[in-house]
Amino acid sequence: MGAGALALSGCIDTGALDWDLRRGAGDTSEAARQATAAAPTPDANGIISYPGYQMATARRGETVATMAGRLGMNPEELARTNALRATDPLREGEMLLLPRRVAASPQPVVIGGSAPMAGGGTAGAIDVTAIATTALDTAAPATRPAGGASPAASKPVAGQPLTHRVARGETAFTIARTYNVSAKALADWNQLGPDMAVREGQTLIIPVATGPAPNPEPVPTPPGAGSPTPEPPSAKKPLPDEKTEPTGTKPKGTPPSPDLGAAKSTPSKMAMPASGKIIRGYDAKKNQGIDIAAAAGSPVVAAEAGTVTVISSDTTGKGIVIIRHPGDLLTVYVGLNGMTVKKGDTVKRGQTIGKVAPGDPPFVHFEVRNTSKQSFDPVGYLQ
């Protein structure tokens, strides 16, 4: 279900997206992230090796099963380690965590086994809680921030980068900010696609920092010295004589005051996507949406008019629909089947987009986000 948040990257043109909202001459986005080492280079067999783990890169047209055959390992074991199925196709360059070691060329030793993070501490001290309640949680990577199941979580291995297992609701951007590295460096180290998409259960290599992020705070003055007083402009050159007008004089060319009463409007509310009771509320860290209990087979409707940008499915095969609305808002619907819309369709408010998939219990997961992928409490948008 949380794959809905991961599929968001498919509906945004990353080529035109200003990730840090700092476009122009004042762009300081790179200064806000640590400098990182060059991305590791796979050997001739596509293997990246470190003391505690190995990653393999997929070739064009490969599936999990064909990669496993090429590397001489069990397809089901490789699939389970990466929260995939043996028949799943792989994107060229996609990296998978290997469940056991294979023969490979050694990689250069990495300086430092943990990446410093914003606010101090190391990545090994970050608590990244996986919400998934499926068998995906058993596919633990070799290293993982504290809170995970890996026994090496609190003991980063010297000479190798940390790894991070993608949890429900995380994106490449939120993971990069968690470890205080740039999203571009994270994409380069993990050979992510142009849409920056990641999936729940995927293992990522965290780029190794080569220098700390700059300190934006001003240098304090020594104790007892006091703060320097700026020289007033009048100390250099007297201000020119100023022609003043009596108080209350209306400046020439002043436009008439607008009728604020006529401009008042009531914020529009979204329609409930399914008829039922909210059984799980919004939590910015653990549940970036709400879960609505509804009878299996009952209709799921568009909360507001918009354009369908993503049609996908999660790891359990349940459908995902993402609709883009005016005002740069996105709504995400997870847990559907029998979908009646396709990518690119224009839908109206209240239009049926699918049905509630069977489950125990059956429910629809609903999210409201902006195009920067920030989530909001959907209850504030619903009637």
Task: Kindly describe this structure.
The protein has helices at 3-6, 64-71, 75-81, 172-178, 183-190, 260-263, and strands at 35-36, 47-49, 54-57, 95-97, 163-165, 203-205, 209-211, 278-280, 290-293, 299-301, 306-313, 319-325, 329-337, 346-347, 352-356, 363-370, 375-376. It is mainly beta and 383 residues long. It has two domains: 32-212, no CATH class; 278-381, Distorted Sandwich (Glucose Permease (Domain IIA)). Helix 2 (64-71) crosses helix 3 and helix 4 (172-178) crosses helix 5 (183-190). It is flat and about 90 Å long. The two termini are 24 Å apart.
Unreliable stretches (pLDDT < 50, length at least 5) are: 9-17, 19-32, 109-155, 261-267
By DSSP (H or I, 4+ residues per run), the number of helices equals 6
Total strand segments: 17
Distance between the termini: 24 Å
**Mass-distribution shape:** flat
> Strand pairing plus helix content: what structural class?
mainly beta
The whole-number mean of residue pLDDT values reads: 75
Gyration radius from CA atoms, angstroms: 26 Å
> What portion of residues is helical?
under 10%
The domain tally reads 2
Order of helices and strands: HEEEHHEEHHEEHEEEEEEEEEE
Largest sheet: 10 strands, antiparallel
Tell me the fraction of residues in β-strands, as a range: 15-25%
